[in-house]
Design brief:
- The protein is mostly helical and 228 residues long.
- It is 70% helix and 2% strand.
- It has one domain (3-85, 106-227): Up-down Bundle (3 helical TM bundles of succinate and fumarate reductases).
- The chain has helices spanning 3-9, 11-36, 43-55, 57-88, 103-106, 108-127, 147-155, 158-185, 198-218; strands spanning 222-223, 226-227.
- The protein has a two-stranded antiparallel sheet.
């Protein structure tokens, strides 16, 4: 057995892998959020951004494959850690009363599975066009895929908006608590610095940043004929 396999199977190694993969997924989430905020710039700006990403075939597919690999590794390691923790405490407490852990921390396994289901829905919706096929891969006047109109059509539907509202709430909570965890796992927490505030701050920024464009669509601030 190689040193890396032994390291990965250890609790410390697994937590380090969780931290690194979680950090990389978090960074992608931030970049993805910034991209979607370009909806406020109007149809041409957003479609230019979307067309630029779609035209980078040499980058797009390796990034997608890498993200899927990171997600799978993160989930597999997380399941392994949960199993180890349960095996180490086979008997339930007579009366469970958490002292330090937060509600978000205790719900990490549940929110992780829920986030995975939400990501699958998101891929079916915007990447594969299976949720609203009538708005998928239509063209704008410049003969580009009209991602702007697909976004607007999607979030004009209250049911679609509700799915994303719940999904982004869980994702923001998961990544926010995860940020505090990977700071600790990577040895970046220090009593002098208020790192415990990082998690809630990240949760708020991600939730507001991701839900601002869909909410603007739902209330009519972003429309098919432009912003305003």
């Amino acid at each position: 057995m190689s040193w890396f396999v032994r390291y990965a199977r250890s609790s410390i190694g697994a937590k380090h892998i969780m931290a690194v993969t979680g950090l990389l997924l978090f960074l992608f989430a931030v970049v993805h959020m910034v991209g979607h905020l370009q909806m406020f710039g109007g149809r041409d700006m957003y479609n230019t951004y979307a067309h630029f990403l779609q035209s980078l075939w040499e980058v797009k597919w390796p990034v997608r494959a890498g993200l899927i690999a990171l997600l799978i590794i993160h989930m597999v390691v997380a399941i392994g850690l949960v199993s180890k923790n349960r095996a180490a405490r086979p008997e339930r407490y007579a009366k469970y009363k958490p002292v330090v852990s937060s509600a978000a921390g205790r719900a990490m396994a549940f929110t992780g599975l829920a986030v995975f289901a939400f990501i699958a829905f998101h891929i079916l919706h915007f990447t594969l066009g299976q949720v609203q096929p009538e708005a998928f891969h239509t063209l704008d006047p410049q003969k580009r895929y009209d991602a702007y109109s697909m976004f607007v059509v999607g979030f004009k539907n209250p049911a679609i908006f509700g799915v994303y509202l719940a999904g982004m709430g869980l994702l923001a909570m998961h990544l926010g608590h995860g940020a505090a965890s990977w700071l600790q796992s990577l040895g970046l927490r220090h009593p002098k610095y208020p790192v415990d505030r990082v998690g809630p701050l990240i949760s708020i920024v991600l939730f507001v940043g991701y839900m601002a464009p869909p909410t603007a669509v739902l209330v009519g601030l972003i429309r098919l004929n432009g912003v305003g």
